[in-house]
Amino acid sequence: VSISDEAKSLLSVSPQKWLTEGDPVTLICEVKGSSTGWTFSWYTLTASSDSSSHYQLLSDSSRGAGGNYIVSSAAPNHTGVYVCRAKREKPVYNTWYSNKQLLWVTGVSLPVSLIIRPSRTQHFTSVSLPLSCEDQSNSDRWRVRRYTDNEQLEDCSSSLRGSQTGSKCTISSTITSDTGVYWCQSESGENYHPVNITIHFDVILESPVHPVTEGDSLTLRCLYKHSPNLRADFYKDGSLIQSQTTEMIISTVSKSHEGFYYCKHPEREESPKSWISVTASHSESQISVLHTLSSVLTVCPYLLVTVVLIFKCCRMRDST
């Protein structure tokens, strides 16, 4: 078996890699320069206790053998780093592992929460950043993991100034390379509650760590390291939505408010972008269930009458 230098596996994600629980997502693996005769395998990047990482074959890898690994309803534990690989029988070739793609899935009913203090996704450089994985039993069975911008999967304590005790990790003095996606990992390797944490110098956006529920309010602030309460412009997905204000308030959030936000001051640099995730309200979920139930109950009487008529016809035919 040989490794092809020319044939390379390329991994992409559709429609996006920032997901809310229940969203559909497809991982697409292609071989550059060739389209036929390939079988694909799927892996996640895992890290051991000594922070060394390796690729682990997915238990249901075979269902993506054709090149598309489809998740019809994303769950929080689908959070992770994925790669693919292709092989061909005639002539025999194995490609190298593909580029890495991170999926992160936010949800509302999680067994654990990643707590960040202060509770926001962007932080200044040279500050202390405590993080902890907290569940209802206050157990120490969780570890804070992170996937950094240089594509390293590691313990939070792998930071130059990081230390981890049980389910708690503290970065004593943040630097820009601490930027990455952080989450809680169970002893069995399942990942929950990913948060994209950005470390920046002078200007940051104060935005919520948790997904915002439809119908709730949302407040965003532009923070400056040396000059508090300055007015700024706020942007969503690159478009100006509010100008020259110290904070931006959306009184009633809807799904259309989901997107990337950042702020900018005319005389200072702009903040990094933060993804704001919006989840359906509990009442809407109940309405959806009730609607489905009422539809079923409406159809049931007709089904019952049909069954009774068929039964009677059969008896009449037997009697004749």
UniProtKB/TrEMBL annotation:
A Gene Ontology MF term for this entry? transmembrane signaling receptor activity
InterPro entries (UniProt xref):
Ig-like_dom (IPR007110), Ig-like_dom_sf (IPR036179), Ig-like_fold (IPR013783), Ig_Fc_receptor (IPR050488), Ig_sub (IPR003599), Ig_sub2 (IPR003598)
The organism named in the record is: Cyprinus carpio (Common carp)
The segment(s) forming the Ig-like domain are 8-86, 194-279
Asked if Protease is a keyword of the record, the answer is: no
Top-level taxon in the UniProt lineage: Eukaryota
A cellular component annotation (GO) from this entry: external side of plasma membrane
This chain's protein is named Ig-like domain-containing protein
Q: Which UniProt keywords apply?
A: Disulfide bond, Membrane, Signal, Transmembrane, Transmembrane helix
Q: Which SUPFAM superfamilies match?
A: Immunoglobulin
The record's Gene Ontology biological-process terms are: cell surface receptor signaling pathway; immune response
Keyword Mitochondrion among record annotations: no
Q: Which residue ranges traverse the bilayer?
A: 289-311
